[in-house]
Design goal:
Largest sheet: 5 strands, mixed
Structural class: alpha/beta
CATH architecture of the domain at 118-259: 3-Layer(aba) Sandwich
Oligomer: single chain
Strand content: 5-15%
Number of helices: 5
Strand order of the largest sheet: 5-4-8-6-7
Distance between the termini: 176 Å
CATH topology of the domain at 118-259: Hypothetical Protein Mth938, Chain: A
Radius of gyration: 59 Å
Length: 261
Amino acid sequence: MACTIPAGALVRCARSVVSSSLRAACANSLGHKAEAAEGFSRQRSSCSGPSGIRDVAISSWSREALSHRSSLKTTSRQLHTSSAARRRQDPDTSSAAPKQETTASDLDRLDVLGAVPVPSHSVDLCMADGFQLNSGAEIRGGSGVLLVGGEGFAWQPWLAGDKGKRLVNSKGQWDIPDESLALLGLVWPRPDILILGLGPEIRPLAPAVRKHIASLGMRVDVMDTHNAAAQFNMLVRERGIDEIAAALIPLGWREGRGAGP
């Protein structure tokens, strides 16, 4: 048998259930608010007003500052320790003895011909009455020397003329007969340069002598005997014994008297 419930009774029952739920929710919310208010009251009582809030903020900042300072000290100690270790590993080079440096003034390193042997017919000594060669041979007695093809020959060009012991003409030019240089026309290969040492002083060369030397296919370089010997020694090492020849008069040569000690 079915039971019929009036509609008004259902509405009243629903309102009663909703009201009970709202009251429970409000009570729960009020309980949380009360707890929060109680906690806030305790915090206010411990802070004692605005000054207390300021003290709490300062205490919090102090703790952070101390923590930051402690971390800075630790970092500083680490940096100090690493710097000391690096100094121990890398000793100070400023206290080390300075290294010796080879400068450009080292003449041994500048001598590009140092490894080239000295020819045996190069001139070691120029004397008043002759010469001494690198081989140890000496040409004395007032004779000059003719150096060609690696050999040294006693040379007396004044004997080829009729002027006696005179090598300077009336014009003040150094003049010798063509026959005095005949040996240079016999050698082969022909030297490229002939160095003439005219004794203690230099004089102009007679045109006929210069022309004859050019006809032999050689260039001529004229200077006093001392410089001529030095020039010959350098060029014969640099260019070879077949390229350079020299004809030298002793340093003690005097016109009309010849050379002597």
